[in-house]
Amino acid sequence: MARVRHDGGTVDRGALDRQGRDEDAALGSSLRPRTMDEYIGQGALKRKLRVFVDAAKQRGEALDHVLLHGPPGLGKTTMAQILAAELGVRIHVTSGPAVEHKGILAGHLTALESGDVLFIDEIHRLTPAVEESLYSAMEDGRIDLPVGEGSRARTMPFALAPFTLVGATTRTALLGAPLRERFQIVEGLEYYADDELAAIVRRTAGILGIAITAEAALELGRRSRGTPRIANRLTRRVRDFAQVRGRARIELDDATFALGELGIDAEGLDAIDRRILGAIVELFDGGPVGIEALAATLAEPRDTLEDVYEPFLLQRGFLVRTPRGRQVTRKALAHLGKPVPPRSGGGGSEQGELPL
Ligand code: ADE
């Protein structure tokens, strides 16, 4: 398994956050860190994965199967590529929607060489039939290949090279227990802290060849929704503004000006975040409102609301989930410039009482 080649394989992605991913791809992935040391943030995760990688290498075995979960743009794909690089193996990249039937999965699995990583992005979108044939591959290192035709059709077991499946999903809850339980390593990626994002912005600006002040980098980091993909996207856009304004280096006022033009407010909320909160306040009296009703009102896919917007709004305390649906918080009302009702002091459990 001492293969040192590290190539991308086929990259085929689902619709979710396609715009961001396409921008990443257009950059020739030059912004992606290639080693654990280059990778900023996710300290606890990196420490654990380093141990698992070192241990597997010492034993000369394939790394156990890894499930990475977390909101889009936090670096799950990047981490999979780094795992392969640090293991010194090749990575084959695909996604749940791209593996349309068992034959495609069999094609990927039989192409694996000893120790290789198979990365399946959006693994929660595999069909039940494909998912089931993945079970025997993960557990017994074998798949059943169809042979013969018509009345002579049957299947033949095929022994796979030892490999590591790295699956990525935005929400573990979407993954059925049978698949989830077949991963020996299950880890979540967390939203990044402002200073980590500032460090990513400085690194990205360096790669793009533009100087940036520490204050400007921190402001961009602060308004990047805890997400490196967004920090990188904003860095590129702010660079455009600074360049056209004739600046040799991005200063704080270039950053705040550009962010204003891009519709990103002081809390890092974008137009869609504000539309979501605004709709709950204006049309649903602050909530609670069910996700289906909200998605229909906003004409946004439910998945996008649940995977991209809601986790951030929850994490920042603009939204809470109650058994009866989503509800805005006092913080959200204050942020939108709406009247904030006084606290009743009655424990906050009565009908219509705002949480937080
Ligand atoms: N670019 C995107 N994510 C990154 C990370 N976590 N560290 C460094 N650069 C990045």
Layout: helices, strands, pairs:
Elements: H1 18-26, H2 43-59, E1 66-69, H3 76-87, E2 91-95, H4 102-110, E3 117-121, H5 128-140, E4 142-147, E5 154-159, E6 164-169, H6 177-180, E7 185-188, H7 194-208, E8 211-212, H8 214-222, H9 228-244, E9 249-250, H10 252-261, H11 271-284, H12 291-298, H13 302-315, E10 319-322, E11 325-328, H14 330-335
Parallel strand pairs: 1-6, 1-7, 2-3, 3-6, 8-9
Antiparallel strand pairs: 4-5, 10-11
Bound molecules: adenine.
Adenine is lined by residues 31-33, 39-41, 75, 78, 200, 203, 228, 232.
How would you portray this structure in words?
With 356 residues, this protein is α/β, with parallel strands linked by helices. The protein folds into three domains: 4-188, Rossmann fold (3-Layer(aba) Sandwich); 194-261, Orthogonal Bundle (Helicase, Ruva Protein, domain 3), CATH 1.10.8; 271-336, Arc Repressor Mutant, subunit A. Helices cover 44% and strands 13% of the residues. The protein has 14 helices and eleven strands. The protein has helices at 18-26, 43-59, 76-87, 102-110, 128-140, 177-180, 194-208, 214-222, 228-244, 252-261, 271-284, 291-298, 302-315, 330-335, and strands spanning 66-69, 91-95, 117-121, 142-147, 154-159, 164-169, 185-188, 211-212, 249-250, 319-322, 325-328. It has a five-stranded parallel sheet with strand order 2-3-6-1-7, covered by helices on one side. The chain has a two-stranded antiparallel ribbon with strand order 4-5. A hairpin with a 2-residue loop joins strand 10 (319-322) and strand 11. The longest helix is centred in the first third of the chain and has 17 residues, at 43-59. The model is unreliable at 1-19 and 348-352 (pLDDT under 50). The structure holds adenine. The site of adenine (ADE) has 12 residues, from helix 7 and helix 9.
